[in-house]
Write a structure and sequence with these properties.
The chain has seven helices and two strands, in the order ααααββααα. By secondary structure, the protein is mainly α. The relative contact order is 0.06. The C terminus is likely disordered.
């Protein structure tokens, strides 16, 4: 019995659907593993799952309903999670003109520099509050000395974090260049260097 073009197309479609379902299962498996790690670091479990999903899935932008469908949880569970992630600077919230639905995404162009940049106002405000507290409490007592050391710590973090971000952006560009030219971007698997020694 011969196979018609329609049969072949149907077979290809079914295979594509199976491949997509397998990919989604792999995404959800990663989401649970990464979310558990983020939860151990203090992020609420549902917020961790949403962030991991947006990081690993292919779409560029999501509604809360799409996130709930992708994670196979209730929309109510996602609602609080996206609110917290937006407040923490881990997700961006957008709304198209005329739309009544919010959309969420990670910062696709250099995700981690964008996320870290969201932290700067918090660090600046923290330094302001600590400095005001130190003026009132003074440095003669143990509490004041701890506040002073905390100020120095945040100043150190602010200064070195932005230097590290500049280095990261340089590294990111080089990694992209290596990937484009076919070199390895895996630190554990550097590009092969030809043997130029004399035989």
């Amino acid at each position: 019995m011969s196979t018609t073009p329609d049969d072949a197309d149907a077979g290809l479609l079914q295979q594509a659907q199976r491949d997509e379902e397998a990919h989604q299962q792999n995404v959800l498996k990663f989401v649970e593993q990464f979310a558990m790690l983020l939860s151990e670091a203090g992020l609420p479990r549902m917020s961790a799952r949403v962030f991991a999903y947006v990081l690993a899935d292919d779409a560029e932008i999501y509604t809360a309903r799409e996130l709930s469908e992708g994670l196979r949880v209730s929309p109510a569970a996602v609602s609080g999670a996206v609110r917290q992630l937006v407040q923490a600077g881990l997700l961006a919230k957008e709304r198209a003109p005329g739309s009544r639905v919010d959309h969420y995404r990670v910062y696709d162009d250099d995700i981690w520099s964008s996320i870290m940049a969201q932290r700067r106002p918090f660090i600046v405000r923290t330094l302001e509050v600590l400095s005001e507290g130190l003026e009132v409490i003074g440095t003669e007592r143990p509490g004041g000395r701890r506040i002073r050391e905390t100020i120095e710590f945040y100043r150190f973090i602010e200064e070195h974090m932005w230097a590290a971000m500049a280095e990261w952006q340089k590294h990111r560009r080089h990694a992209a260049d290596r990937a484009f030219t076919g070199g390895s971007s895996d630190p554990g698997n550097p590009p092969h260097k030809p043997d130029t020694s004399e035989k």
